[in-house]
Amino acid sequence: MMDTVIAATISAIATLAATFCSIWLRQRYERKQKEKNILHEHAKRNKNVYTALEYLMEKLKGDRVYVYEFHNGDIYYSGGSQQKFSCTYEEVKEGISSEAHRSQNFRVSNFHYFVERLIGDKGFCCPTIDDIKDVTFKHLLQDRGIKSFYAVPIKTLEGKIIGLLGVDFVKKEKSDCVNIEFLRQQARIICGYLV
Fold first, then answer.
1. I need a labelling partner for 25 at 20 to 30 A (CA). Which of 14, 44, 64, 162 fits?
2. How far is 12 from 148, CA to CA, in rounded Å?
3. What are φ and ψ of residue 138, in 5° steps?
4. What's the pLDDT at 14?
């Protein structure tokens, strides 16, 4: 009788162990499949953004096009968040420097002139950087060889600004701002890939 109870107990434990192992393996497999799908979707989204940037560069005859996204960098000792923005996508023409690697974690407070104009005016069109009063911002543009640029906010359907879309003209100045509305249209399209 005791042998039967022990055998039944061992059998029950083995069945439970096999069941838990089977559940664990299934969950692990599903998690890996989900990770694969997430990476696949992310790669597809990235491809769409780069396609949109290439199209934009071609249509506007720009030399460098990019997306910056706003994010929370770190936390100050006071508990407030450090609001920053970083270049997350960039396309450049042959012979034009890529600046994405040098365009990470800019503090919004250091570029208040640019951000304020970008948000307040629903875009920033700069036919010549000589007109820019903010010395820090002007030096950054000069350092990158920019002669003219356009930038517009990237907004969600709810109106939340999540980033900016910009076009730099390095080889020659762009003397007008007639294409700023086209840039706004492209920002709406790109926003769909970012959120």
1. 44
2. 76
3. -60, -40
4. 65
